[in-house]
Amino acid sequence: MAHSTFSSLINLAPGHRYKVFLSSFLAILSVCAEVLPYLCVYGILLFHGVSEVDKVWDFAYACMAALLARPLLFGASTWLAHIASFDILYEVRLRLLGKLTRLPLSYFTTRQTGNLKRMVNENVEVLELYFSHQLPDMLAAMVMPLLTLLLLFLVSWPLALAAIGVVPLLWFSNFLIMRGHGDKINRYFALLGQINGVFVEYLQGLETLKNLHDKDAPFVRLEEKTQEFKAFNADWQKSWLAPWTLFSVSTGASLLFVIPSGVWLLQSDLVTVYDFMFAILCVTGIAAPILKLMIYMEIFLRVQKVVTSINLLLEAPEDRAGGHITSVDEQDQIRFRDVVVCDGDQKLLDHITLDIPHKGITAVVGLSGAGKTTLLRAMCHLLTPNSGKILIGSFGLDDYRPEAVTRHIAFVSQDVFLFEGAILDNIRIGRAEATEDEVIKAAKDAKVHDFIENLPQGYRTEIGENGVRLSGGERQRLSLARALICNTPVLVLDEITAHVDMYHEHLIQTAINALVGQKTIVLSSHRLDSVATCDHIIMLDNATLVGAGSHQELMADNIMYQHLWQLQQENIDWTLKTHDVSTCNRGKAG
Fold first, then answer.
1. Mean pLDDT of 69-75
2. Cα dihedral 24, 27, 28, 29 in deg (nearest 10)
3. For 2-14+85-314, which CATH class?
4. Cα–Cα distance for residue pair 183/173, rounded to 1 Å
């Protein structure tokens, strides 16, 4: 398992394997340089006793060289490990972010934003710490006791056997510590992920929470998760406290075996006093590496969990299979053929078959939850149908390269997201190579240019995270400009006037009306009066198609459309009734 985890770690950034291996090799050499003085001291003592002055000096020089080489080798190992770790960190984050852009929207709706953020930030950071610090140190901690015991075997195998007499104690205490450890690690990360996810949700909903009457009530769930995590950690610590104490004591207990054995061997003339001194010197130096190794093995299990989660994300099925067709004919019509989209057992679209008129304006209407947004997202290949096909011309969406679809269809969501930075950069995200003149033209087409020009820095005005300094209507018009700069033949608009005031709604509708006849426009709306003049209206109810045609055709033979139209007209005529103050006063006087 450890071998497979290490292989998975290396495979995350194969271009930097040589740096990792070289760093590890230098770390092992630094351990050799650390152990060599033990042997040198033994040689000095041994040959000093027989008046071999030249050999004594040779051992002394070797000892000094080893003492000087050790920090140099370890420093080089650390330097190279940091270079490798940051390169790996960069590449893994790029791979994860690239993967996220290719996953279906359903992947994100079933997962907490906080968990995905933790994946890209904290989890990847664990890899950096592992490659830059933990891996070289762990290898050094492994080699140090093994090399020391090997030297002791070469000097005196009876004393070496005595030194490893502590191994059964180490094995037993380690067995007690690691019992059920895998399940506990999984539980640890699961609880940590839940806390992270809930906390991010609360931060995102802070504006709503501040307006609640009982401001403490919403934090009950976060407190419960935190207390659950605290109780789990406390129980876990109690379970391994005694075994860990035994392990810690056992690592330094080699002298309890070596000293009595050495005294007996000395009395029996089976070892020399120099052998005995060398054995004591060796075993006193292996306790710290063994303790460090145990700590690193615990860390390695956590790294193993992180690697597993990263690989699960990288191996998740992508929404866009990526066909072979690299371009779409502008004259090709979009058609749905028996399309079914599901979220688990729930059908979001149920056997939809329809045609989108070329260079016409099509409206998708229906009650909330009818499937309007799902239909538009499926059309843009943001969702993959469970069955059926969405065609552009004679080919399905999966037959086209993803970039071919995005060059043909631009999508504007009702949930606007703007990036922190300048307005110019936010519009240009739609087409990175666009010139400033093209950005200005897109802004004019979206009826947002005049607003931008009145800002202090114009198009270079910083708008804050997600456009926090702008109103909802201003943000929506910027998102429309971002779509228009793509200059795609098809424009898909998902209820983009749902959350704006009448002024901004008028500007957006003016911008859309100017595009009629130039592009194929598909929009969803909850207001029938705003789409009554559309060329084609699609009526959805409970994920099924219940009507299609012009406003006049639907009013003539579609009962649901007639009912919704009547309800809307009643809402338009609705007024707020007030009390007749004079009548109330007369009543009081009477």
1. 89
2. 120
3. mainly alpha
4. 19
Q: What local confidence, expressed as pLDDT, does residue 209 receive?
A: 67
Strands 334-343 and 346-356 come out as antiparallel
The dihedrals phi and psi of 350, each to the nearest 5 degrees, come to -120, 95
3-state secondary structure 324-369: CECCCCCCCCEEEEEEEEEECCEEEEEEEEEEECCCCEEEEECCCC
Q: Which residue has the tokens 């004079």?
A: 582
Q: Which residues contact 341 (CB under 8 A, 6 or more apart)?
A: 347, 348, 349, 371, 374, 378, 383, 384, 385, 386
> Is the CB of residue 519 less than 8 Å from the CB of residue 491?
yes
- Which of helix, strand or coil describes residue 409? strand
Above 80 in pLDDT, residue 484? yes
- Rama region for 16: left / alpha / beta (φ>0; ψ in -120 to 50; rest): alpha
Angle between helical axes of 287-314 and 181-204 (0-180°, round to 10): 60
User: Is the pTM higher than 0.90?
Assistant: no
Rounded CA-CA distance 68/85 in Å is 26
Q: For 499-534, what is each residue's pLDDT tens digit?
A: 777 888 888 888 888 888 889 999 998 888 888 889
State whether CATH 3.30.160.140 applies to domain 334-526+540-548: no
User: Which structure tokens are listed for 63?
Assistant: 């000892």
Instruction: Give 362's strand partners.
Output: 522, 536
**Torsion, Cα of 256, 259, 260, 261 (10° steps):** 110
Mean pLDDT of the chain: 81
Q: H or E segment at 390?
A: strand 387-392
CA 491 to chain centre: 30
539, containing H or E segment = strand 536-541
Mean pLDDT check: name the lowest of 178-187, 205-214, 276-285, 355-364: 205-214
Residue 590, pLDDT score: 39
Q: Residue 576 — pLDDT band, cuts 50, 70, 90? A: low
Structure tokens at 181: 């450890």
Structure tokens given for 265: 């061997």
Tell me which of 171-180, 512-521, 557-566 is least confident.
Answer: 171-180
Helix-, strand-, coil-residue percentages of the chain, each rounded to 5: 65, 10, 25
| Cβ-contact 521, 515 below 8 angstroms | yes
What residue spans define the domains of the chain?
A: 2-14+85-314, 334-526+540-548
Mean pLDDT of 339-353: 88
Question: Confidence class of residue 376 from pLDDT cuts 50, 70 and 90?
Answer: very high
The sheet carrying 361-365 orders its strands as 409-412, 490-494, 520-524, 361-365, 536-541, 544-549
How far apart, in whole angstroms, are the C-alpha atoms of residue 231 and residue 392? 56
Give me the amino acid identity at 108. Answer: F
Pairing outcome for strands 536-541 and 361-365? parallel
Lowest mean pLDDT among 70-79, 268-277, 361-370, 539-548: 268-277
Q: Closest Cα to residue 545, out of 340, 345, 397?
A: 340
Q: Considering the chain, what percentage of its residues have pLDDT values greater than 90?
A: 13
